[in-house]
Specification:
Number of helices of chain B: 8
Shape of chain B: globular
Largest sheet of chain B: 7 strands, mixed
Number of strands of chain B: 7
Radius of gyration of chain B: 19 Å
Number of strands of chain A: 19
Distance between the termini of chain B: 34 Å
Low-confidence stretches of chain B: none
Largest interface: A-B, 81 and 58 residues
Oligomer: heterodimer
Mean pLDDT of chain B: 97
Strand content of chain A: 15-25%
Strand order of the largest sheet of chain A: 5-4-3-6-7
Shape of chain A: globular
Low-confidence stretches of chain A: none
Helix content of chain B: 25-40%
Structural class of chain A: alpha/beta
Helix content of chain A: 25-40%
Largest sheet of chain A: 5 strands, parallel
């Protein structure tokens, strides 16, 4: 048999039909659903009088719109249009008989955090969601990617997607990371290297010692931002850490089925001589704690660098860089570590897991945030929040001056009331620094949780290594 | 879905690279449970100021381009989120074709589900088309999906590639779900086999 990549193996196990021209029907094992990209899809089903094909494989949770303030049980905390979307999901989940975690459930949270936490996401699966950060689930060795609403409807109706196989890229991070360098720095550095379109048309497999050394939480952070590099999906081969994370989760297999599952999961790796369409290798020791300076996730520099000038770029990027500098209100040559911030946001499907909160707490322990700064921590799920309270992290955050919120997407995309004001500058652990992303004319610098915590203390972008 | 066969119309130039879906349709307009009406907010934060007044410099606010049906854009158009509200807004505005050197995968796919043709061409070709678009309303481009060509107002022809299945669906205005349901037997057979091989799924 010819050698295969991990992507080949998962793909081959899910082709339900292949046409002569290579167009496939790919079977979907898990369909995750949230309130923003699904109402039109359910409406389409109703109009065509179609049921959900596999309700037992369909899991819904509201996350994008929900308020994260402690009083959110009060319906008045939500705007009318947000409430309409959340109510629509409540109704659709009930009418179509799919698994559902309502806002009031302690298990509610960001869909990409809830899926793995509840054991819905398992190695070797195909996972889709009407959300580009579905790439997160690739950390388990699951082929996971975002889809549009028409495709959401297609999966609801048929449990398949019409697909052609993509190209395959290997991104290897060799050796060890230096102190203070995290999964977030890896994923941002890869995008800095390949650009936001570098992964277009590809499925990325991340591998190498530095990736193997990451926890499952860290691996999810890396895969989460595959989409920011243009790749619909990122993958990491499952190993003992993966199995340990999955074992005992509510929807993970048990007993003999667990044994059978692990036996198959152990075959899910890229064979030695497998073919790659592209290979990128980065030395772990060359990665520094990084920040973004512009309005594209590829605008990445080490915290020790200076704000670049538009002249440092070529082609269409010259104009884009100038536009970014103007939007961000930055002067070329300014050290990044002198940029003052107004807000710190720690959370999102990129960095809203327990390990991220531990990393922030490590820096914040016994410290206070800079006076006048707005700082919030939004755990990725109700269970992450509960665990952080149990571990005493919540007390550290509150004593430092952070707001300690309920779970949701929050200021990552600012669809709920958590938004930047015009001109406000934020150190954020989220995934996108696009114009207006966190609020109209808001300015976003993407960083790791430790870097965000350090910035909260000094009031400016800060090298976390100075605080360790 | 609306069919796409040929289109002759005004092309608006947007030379900016990495035009993301947050630019195309900012998140405050995603709080709808409908697919229609989003054209009024296409490129909202680039097109209007906070008071809702048009920003005169923005291309679609210029008289020559108000009725544009084609967009010629910089590299990596449609990057970012999976929101299908982006193609919904483009279509609702009246644009049926976007030309760039490259598109983000999810956005590219979403276009075909909505009767929009995204055309990827080499940088040299996009440069020529960008200059043609900059001529304004009197310079109309023609897109012919059957022939897979874009023709400038001067008659220069560029051939583009498109997946045969996607082309067929767009030309016929076919409903994907209907097509897939015709293969229900394959899906049922796959499910029977998979439930044996991987019963834990």
């Amino acid at each position: 048999m010819s050698p295969k990549t991990l992507y080949d193996k998962i793909w081959d196990a899910h082709v339900a039909h292949e046409a002569d021209d290579g167009t496939c029907l790919l079977y979907i094992d898990r369909h995750l659903v949230h309130e923003v990209t699904s109402p039109q899809a359910f409406e389409g089903l109703r109009m065509a009088n179609r049921p959900v094909h596999a309700p037992d494989k369909t899991i819904a949770v509201p996350d994008h719109n929900v308020p994260t303030t402690l009083d959110r049980a009060n319906a008045a905390t939500m705007t009318e249009d947000s409430r309409v979307q959340v109510d629509a999901l409540d109704k659709n989940a009930k009418d179509f008989g799919i698994h559902y975690y309502p806002v009031s459930d302690v298990r509610q949270g960001i869909v990409h955090i809830v899926g793995p936490e509840q054991g819905w996401t398992l190695p070797g699966m195909t996972v889709v969601c009407g959300d580009s950060h579905t790439a997160t689930h690739g950390a388990f060795g699951a082929l996971a990617h975002g889809i549009g609403t028409s495709e959401v409807e297609h999966v609801l109706a048929t449990q398949t997607l019409i697909q052609r196989k993509g190209k395959n890229m290997k991104v290897e991070i060799t050796g060890k990371l230096r102190p203070g360098v995290t999964a977030k720095d890896i994923t941002l550095s890869v995008i800095g290297e390949t650009g936001t379109a570098g992964g277009t048309g590809y499925v990325i497999e991340y591998c190498g010692e530095a990736i193997r050394d990451l926890s499952m939480e860290g691996r999810m952070t890396v895969c989460n931002m595959a989409i920011e590099g243009g790749a619909r999906a990122g993958l990491i081969a499952p190993d003992a850490k993966t199995f340990e994370y999955c074992m005992g989760r509510p929807h993970a297999p048990k007993g003999a089925q667990w044994e059978a599952a692990v036996a198959w999961w152990k075959t899910l790796y890229s064979d030695d001589d497998a073919h790659w369409d592209k290979v990128v290798t980065i030395k772990g020791e060359d990665i520094a704690p990084v920040v973004t300076w512009g309005t594209s996730p590829e605008d990445v520099l080490p915290i020790t660098a200076n704000v670049p000038s538009a002249d440092d770029f070529e082609g269409g990027k010259v104009g884009a860089a100038q536009r970014s500098l103007d939007y961000m209100g930055l002067t070329p040559g300014t050290p990044l570590s002198e940029i003052e911030i107004d807000t710190v946001f720690i959370g999102s499907c990129t960095n809203g897991r327990i390990e991220d909160l531990r990393a922030a707490a490590e820096i914040l322990k016994g410290k206070k945030i800079k006076e006048g700064l707005r700082a919030m921590i939004v755990p990725g799920s109700g269970l992450v929040r509960a665990q952080a309270e149990e571990e005493g992290l919540a007390d550290i955050f509150k004593e430092a001056g952070f707001e300690w919120r309920l779970a949701g997407c929050s200021m990552c995309l600012a669809m709920n009331p958590d938004q930047l004001a015009e001109g406000e500058r934020c150190a954020s652990t989220s995934n996108r620094n696009f114009e207006g992303r966190q609020g109209y004319k808001g300015r976003t610098h993407l960083v790791s949780p430790g870097m965000a915590a350090a910035a909260a203390i000094t009031g400016k972008l800060t090298d976390v290594r100075d605080m360790m | 879905m609306d069919k796409f066969e040929t289109l002759t119309g005004i092309a608006a130039p947007m030379p900016l690279v990495n035009i993301d879906t947050d630019m195309i349709i900012p998140k405050q307009f995603l709080k709808t449970i409908k697919r229609s009406g989003l054209g009024a907010n296409l490129f909202d934060e680039m097109r209007f100021d906070r008071q809702g007044n048009e920003i005169p410099d923005f291309v679609l606010n210029q008289d020559a381009y108000r009725n544009a049906e084609i967009l010629v854009a910089g590299d990596n158009f449609g990057c970012g989120s999976s929101r299908e509200h982006a193609p919904w807004a483009i279509k609702d505005f009246g644009i049926r074709c976007v030309i760039s050197t490259s598109f983000a995968d999810i956005f590219y796919n979403n276009c075909f589900k909505n009767g929009i043709l995204p055309i990827a061409l080499p940088a040299e070709a996009v440069d020529v088309l960008m200059r043609d678009a900059e001529k304004g309303a009197n310079a109309r481009m023609t897109v012919d999906l059957e022939a897979q060509t874009v023709t400038t107002s001067d008659g220069e022809v560029f051939r583009f590639e498109v997946d045969a299945f996607k082309k067929h669906c767009l030309m016929e205005g076919l409903d994907d779900i209907g097509l897939t349901m015709a293969k229900a037997d394959s899906i049922t057979a796959f499910e029977a086999e998979a439930s044996q091989a991987r019963p834990w799924v």
